[in-house]
Amino acid sequence: MTENYFILELTTSCNLDCIYCYNVWKENEHYSHKNPSLEEVKKIFRNFREDSIIIGVTLAGGEPLLNDEIFDIASYLQSLNIKLNITTNGILLTQEKVLRLINCGVRNFEVSMPTSDSAIFKKLCGSIDLKKVRAAILEIKKQNAKLSVATVITKINFHETYDIIEIAYALGADYFMLNRFVPGGKGKEFLSQLKLNQSEIIQTLSEANKAARAFNIPVIIAIPVEHCIYDTSSFTKLNFGTCVCGDKKWVIDPWANLRCCEQNPQILGNLLSENFTSLIRKNEVKDFKINNFSENCAEQNCYSQCGGGCRFCRD
């Protein structure tokens, strides 16, 4: 039996307007607003066959708290003994909502904090609510839930890497998730302002490594870094991820469409009418995985380290 992990996108809506947002509906005006209902979510997960084990679901968006049925959806998934996480910008989190989510089965909170500077937060996210993000982080820790602070590193904020990790540590984060900017969604409009060059990525990794050593906080490089392109051998305090998209990790969008990756707009089919197991056997999935295997992977035998890296970061 295969084990699978899902990102469940609960809404197309968001209370921020981040210029680095990767959501695929940000670059296609034909997408309409959508919040999946509890009944739709139930139908999706009833359609999974017994030969697929769901090891976890992350509630995502948009901003998932803008789906009014999020607590009922979380409770339903908890009833299936599914491990639940949530990724949120934190602005809408109150003590009541944190407690309700915990009671509904959410054990891991991932809160986005892309900067330590209010002016940069406004530039990146179109909001002046950075203080609310910090308040949410403190509330999560007050309730003894697991907390990851996540940052998307761009040309605008990469010089803050050390400071952001230090603040995350001070606020009580259990982990720090470092994501380099991936050109997609709205981010495609702002490439010149956001996209890092190789030297800036190395500088970011170096500062993250220093912070991980100084504060003894696990720093996870969530967007895979190609070890044949970047010399990561000296960054011994960083935890480098590998690409498992289209293998163990999948995305279910607000319309119940199945995709291989959050960054990938290609739709494999719809889980309200089609079976998950049949969808992941499609040639599109095979092509998705094969296309991430390059000559460098074969020559340097490093594919197992990064899974070919992130195909959506390449020029």
Structure write-up:
The protein is of the alpha/beta class and 315 residues long. It has one domain (2-313): Aldolase class I (TIM Barrel), CATH 3.20.20. The chain has 12 helices and 11 strands. It has helices at residues 38-46, 70-79, 95-103, 118-125, 130-142, 161-170, 191-194, 198-215, 276-279, 283-290, 295-300, 303-306, and strands spanning 2-9, 52-60, 84-88, 106-112, 146-153, 175-180, 219-221, 238-240, 249-252, 257-259, 269-270. The chain has an 11-stranded mixed beta sheet with strand order 8-7-6-5-4-3-2-1-9-10-11. Strand 3 (84-88), helix 3 (95-103) and strand 4 (106-112) form a beta-alpha-beta unit. The mean pLDDT is 91.
The total beta strand count reads 11
Unreliable segments (pLDDT under 50, ≥5 consecutive)? none
Q: Name the shape in a single word.
A: globular
Report strand %: 15-25%
Order of H and E elements = EHEHEHEHHEHEHHEEEEEHHHH
The CATH superfamily label reads Aldolase class I
Q: Largest sheet at a glance? A: 11 strands, mixed
Rg, rounded, reads 19 Å
Q: What structural class do you assign from the helix and strand content?
A: alpha/beta
Number of individual domains = 1
SS summary, helix count: 12
Instruction: Report the helical percentage.
Output: 25-40%
